[in-house]
């Protein structure tokens, strides 16, 4: 049965805005009659989901969303065609809930089942799972699931996120738009299921992993203030790898519709931030230990914390009699015969490095023949999660390598490699952990990998296992040889870290692990045990939810707008008093006022930033002339450009005031001399600053220096964004150091570092203009101030404080401080772009022209 949302696939993939129609049947949050799902579509007002007031009686609730539910589903064997459902104790999602251990927190799961359910049974299964397990199943047709999971997720996203590029068709993974459309469609279906149970005012939503990376867009589109966290359990590749993805921006923007994005390591987070910088032009900063990305007025927080294991579950398995029995069997099999066990536990896939580990074992036996007939590598190969040619190749290579090593170094009763490729129960794996002298993880790329954590806790054991193993409680030891390229590597500082591609180095590490002194092994084990036992899955989950709550705390205080179509949709969050400037409103005020002050920025306000020819058009000159000819107006253009440039560009306008170099120079009209807002500047500091800037220009390709009369500007707009930003920070520190005793300020702006005289700002121009009008007894009853960047905020601040009665400006004056674009600002109004600014000015100029002809 195909969900209604599936019919919107082509509409969405084409870039059109998808509809979020409610499904014909909704799952209520509270069941009234067992076995009956009430139809809530008849009266939307009765829906608990749509009634925010109902939340006061609800406990705190989190909706956990992942590709697969933590549920095992099996057909009953009695021929009744009914189902048996049990919790999957090995699922991270279930362990996460147990780790939270909060009786006041309700957890609802949304995801797919591990078995196909016939459409005729889906309503009944949904009812059972919701009532019994608080799970909301997402049912997908077989073909759609195959294209989404085995197609896009496993053949395109997963290899790319593990640094594998589809360099030839034989390798697979070439971008396929139909698979991408299936991925988008499944994410949309997940969103529909969440909407059936969410109370958007109160519930938290936590989405897991790369299978659902565009889901945040669908949820944010439906509920602008949804409290939404996302955690990526796989690596995030460097920007050089990620940017090869044709739908790279769509995925980044979708992730940025989350409030909090989590990664296992700083490397993964750093790569994500670099992609946002290079592909979306976004910047990030760290505030009080929290990393935040400013995106359309919202702060998207970045969380770096590796997941942990479920201590309680592992310790309970260690206490099982089956585990104790299996440990005794392994001791008899290996240690009673004088063998030392090395252990590897990996999925059978191309990134786990099983073949590299086997080659290292072969090298160990070649280089150190003393270990022959003494050391055994037990390799447990879990079934592959994906399917395809690459899995078969890994299996074939593994089997052939094991066969060759055993034929070369094997003796009667001794095989140096024992390959276990049949599924093992968890207690059996734990028994192997407890007995192994060293655990080897040689993955060439892995998001986290909890095998080393499980090994450390298993080696800690308990009193009963200590007796079986012959350990003293104070003599616990363990050794880890782990790849540098797995997520848990930074956390395990006592492990021997290796480059798995360097076979000799891995073999040497294995030898070191075998010969290391027991006292050293004990110290390393204690260090690892302290970390793993305190940073368990509960610690991870609580920390993430605390940060999500902190990030979402100000949701209710912000006004939100949804902009963009399809997967380009995003939400702009702004101050409640910030609104779009109405043409009718300002024109009406303009008509009824008699003394007007107009302050305009130039670049980015009257002239688009992307223009190559920055000189004003004839249309702009005509509009400004019309405004200046109106005797009720005083018009001032305030720019960072030099006075020579401004004088040449606006020489046709007689009565317009100009302020150059952020207001250092100004003149009230064309035919008067330029004045300065502050005392004449001593520019001898340029002899110090310019050589420093020149040094950074030579080492930063694409950067330039602009030498103004009173200022120096280093611009890196055309440089590599990451390197340019890094160099700008260094230059800023360098200049502040060498100019510490000079009367200048060093500031960073958008792609620039600027040195200018102290006390100079555009706000100074606004103050000077208002003061000049006051001296002439021309208190303005209409003020409009428009700008686009950080330097214009000083003008807005002066205008706003004047409106509050802090200066001589009449509190009843019509004041319009307006910025360009929806973004956080001290201005009260905004217009979308320079085209709207020009239309506004043209409208005001038309009113003045009409007045002149009367």
Automatic annotation (TrEMBL):
GO terms for biological process: trehalose biosynthetic process. The keyword Coiled coil does not apply. NCBIfam families: HAD-SF-IIB, T6PP. CDD domains: GT20_TPS, HAD_TPP. Its EC number is 2.4.1.15. InterPro entries: Glyco_trans_20, HAD-like_sf, HAD-SF_hydro_IIB, HAD_sf, Trehalose_PPase. This is alpha,alpha-trehalose-phosphate synthase (UDP-forming). One of its GO terms (molecular function) is trehalose-phosphatase activity. It catalyses: D-glucose 6-phosphate + UDP-alpha-D-glucose = alpha,alpha-trehalose 6-phosphate + UDP + H(+). GO terms for cellular component: cytosol. Keywords: Glycosyltransferase, Phosphoprotein, Transferase. It comes from the Eukaryota. Pfam families: Glyco_transf_20, Trehalose_PPase. It is an enzyme of class 2 (transferase). In the C-terminal section; belongs to the trehalose phosphatase family.
């Amino acid at each position: 049965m195909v969900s209604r949302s599936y019919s919107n696939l082509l509409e969405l993939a084409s870039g059109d805005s998808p509809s979020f129609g409610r499904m014909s049947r909704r799952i209520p949050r509270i069941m009234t009659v067992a076995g009956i799902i009430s139809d809530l579509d008849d009266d939307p007002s009765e829906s608990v989901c749509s009634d925010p007031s109902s939340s006061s009686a609800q406990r705190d609730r989190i909706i956990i969303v992942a590709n697969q539910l933590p549920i095992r589903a099996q057909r009953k064997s009695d021929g009744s065609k009914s189902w048996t459902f049990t919790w999957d104790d090995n699922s991270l999602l279930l362990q996460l809930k147990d780790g939270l251990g909060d009786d006041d927190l309700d957890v609802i799961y949304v995801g797919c089942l591990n078995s196909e359910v016939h459409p005729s049974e889906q309503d009944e299964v949904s009812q059972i799972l919701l009532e019994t397990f608080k799970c909301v199943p997402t049912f997908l047709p077989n073909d759609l699931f195959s294209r989404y999971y085995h197609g896009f997720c496993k053949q395109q996203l997963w290899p790319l996120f593990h640094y594998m590029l589809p360099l030839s068709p034989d390798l697979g993974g070439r971008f396929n738009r139909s698979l991408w459309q299936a991925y988008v469609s499944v994410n949309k279906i997940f969103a529909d299921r969440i909407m059936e149970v969410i109370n958007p005012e109160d519930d938290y939503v936590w989405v897991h992993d790369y299978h659902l990376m565009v889901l945040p867009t669908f949820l944010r589109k439906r509920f602008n203030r949804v409290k939404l966290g996302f955690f990526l359990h796989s690596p995030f590749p460097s920007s050089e790898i990620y940017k090869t993805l044709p739908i790279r921006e769509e995925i980044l923007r979708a992730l940025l519709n989350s409030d909090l994005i989590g990664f296992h390591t700083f490397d993964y987070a750093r790569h994500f931030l670099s992609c946002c910088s290079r592909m979306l032009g976004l910047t990030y900063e760290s505030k009080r230990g929290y990393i935040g990305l400013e995106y359309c007025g919202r702060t998207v927080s970045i969380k770096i914390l590796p997941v942990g294991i479920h201590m309680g579950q592992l310790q309970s398995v260690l206490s099982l009699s089956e585990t104790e029995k299996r440990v005794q069997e392994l001791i008899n099999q290996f240690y009673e015969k004088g063998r030392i066990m090395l252990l590897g536990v990996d999925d059978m896939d191309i990134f786990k490095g099983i073949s590299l580990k086997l080659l290292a074992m072969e090298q160990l036996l070649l280089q150190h023949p003393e270990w022959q007939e003494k050391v055994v590598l037990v390799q447990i190969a879990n079934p592959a999660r994906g399917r395809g040619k690459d899995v078969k190749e890994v299996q074939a290579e593994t089997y052939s390598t094991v066969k060759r090593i055993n034929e070369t170094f094997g003796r009667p009763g001794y095989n140096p490699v024992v390959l276990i490729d049949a599924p093992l129960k968890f207690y059996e794996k734990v028994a192997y952990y407890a007995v192994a002298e060293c655990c080897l993880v040689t993955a060439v790329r892995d998001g986290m990998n909890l095998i080393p954590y499980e090994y450390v806790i298993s080696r800690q054991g308990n009193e009963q296992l200590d007796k079986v193993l012959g350990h003293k409680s104070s003599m616990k030891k363990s050794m880890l040889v782990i790849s540098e390229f797995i997520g848990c590597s930074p956390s395990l500082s006592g492990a021997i870290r290796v480059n798995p591609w360097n076979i000799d180095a891995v073999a040497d590490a294995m030898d070191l692990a075998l010969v290391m002194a027991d006292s050293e092994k004990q110290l390393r084990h204690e260090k690892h045990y302290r970390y793993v036992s305190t940073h368990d899955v509960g610690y991870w989950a609580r920390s993430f939810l605390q940060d999500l709550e902190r990030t979402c705390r100000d949701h209710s205080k912000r006004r939100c707008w949804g902009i963009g179509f399809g997967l380009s949709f995003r939400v702009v969050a702004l101050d409640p008093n910030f609104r779009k400037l109405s043409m009718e409103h300002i024109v009406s005020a303009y008509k009824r006022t008699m003394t007007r002050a107009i302050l305009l920025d130039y670049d980015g306000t009257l002239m688009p930033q992307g223009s190559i020819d920055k000189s004003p058009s004839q249309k702009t000159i005509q509009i400004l002339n019309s405004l200046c000819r109106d005797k009720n107006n005083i018009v001032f253009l305030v720019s960072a450009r030099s006075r020579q440039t401004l004088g040449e560009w606006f020489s046709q306008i007689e009565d317009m005031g100009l302020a150059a170099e952020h207001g250092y120079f100004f003149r009230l009209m064309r035919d008067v001399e330029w004045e300065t807002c502050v005392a004449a500047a001593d520019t001898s500091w340029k002899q110090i600053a310019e050589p420093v800037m020149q040094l950074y220009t030579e080492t930063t390709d694409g950067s330039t220096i602009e030498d103004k009369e009173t200022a120096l500007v280093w611009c890196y707009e055309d440089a590599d964004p990451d390197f340019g930003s890094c160099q700008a920070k260094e230059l800023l520190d360098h200049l502040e150091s060498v100019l510490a005793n000079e009367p200048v300020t060093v500031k960073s702006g958008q792609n620039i570092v600027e040195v200018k005289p102290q006390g100079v700002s555009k706000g100074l121009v606004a103050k000077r203009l208002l003061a000049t009008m006051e001296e002439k007894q021309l208190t303005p009853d209409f003020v409009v101030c428009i700008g686009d960047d950080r330097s214009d905020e000083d003008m807005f601040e002066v205008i706003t404080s004047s409106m509050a009665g802090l200066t001589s400006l009449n509190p009843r004056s019509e004041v319009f401080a307006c910025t360009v674009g929806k973004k956080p600002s001290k201005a009260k109004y905004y217009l979308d772009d320079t085209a709207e600014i020009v239309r506004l000015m043209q409208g005001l100029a038309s009113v003045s022209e009409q007045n002149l002809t009367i």
